Amino acid sequence: MVDPVLRLRQICLLAHDLEWTSNVLCTAFDAHVVFRDPRMAAGGNLTNTHIRLGDSFLETVCPSDKAWANSTTQTRLLERNGDCGYMAIVQVPDVAVASRSMSDQGSKTGIVSGDWNVCEGSPGSGLAGVKSGRYQLGEALPKEAGTVTGVNVQYHPRDYGTLAEIQENWPGQTEFPRNKGTYYPAGNTWQNDVDTRPHGGVTTGFAAVEIAPREGSPEEICDNWVNGLGNGCELDPDQSATLRLAGGQSMRFVAPVDGRTGVVGVDLFAVPDAPRRFTSIDVCGVTWRLVDPAPAA
H helices of the chain, where? Predict the structure, then answer.
């Protein structure tokens, strides 16, 4: 049985031109930017946008001139791959458990990075006064009344085919669709628009992500994800190197496509009873496909 919390919540892209790429994505998916992370911009190396697709998020990241001068991981990846899919983020029910099991897979590289976030307030009230710190492997997410909290933990692409991240947020990551709970990567005001505009006219959110590992076979990388995510995640009995998540979502692992690795494809649930604007399009090194609407909750 798939755990209902175990969902693909975010895809991250890496682009040379943040505004152009974000505008193309907003137009293609009839969605809008809901958040630009001021803390990321303050770091001096990266700027970003978050676009809401139903209750999922599409992030685009762009290196600054400072990053190019210092030859960061992101600029080297852009030099090698061009604009590309950069990261897949899966929501987990218990980050204390999942952070350990994810770090034990493959080369056992452990955590690339991780942070906890705590802020007084509620979902939708903003992030004024947010406090953050470095996450320690196996720590539980703090859950105190009157606060919104979140933890993110990242893992190396060699073990997961792309930069991988798991997230636990509180309160409210169990109600789908129209989830309005905490989700730190996209800020804490996007929830206020969900009732009036649950989604745009193109898609209700992610159906699948397609990942092409640079190292290891698709089957090996798929096993790492299955074993890392643990109970509540299952292999698809009918499709090789494919795992099932909640809400009809899946993760597919394939051989590199025309030399492209990492996130190379994303399936999007089409809006029910609405004309489809496209069958598939290529944007930012990723092939986006519209598929049948999400199964009924």
Answer: 18-29, 38-42, 65-70, 73-81, 95-103, 157-160, 218-229
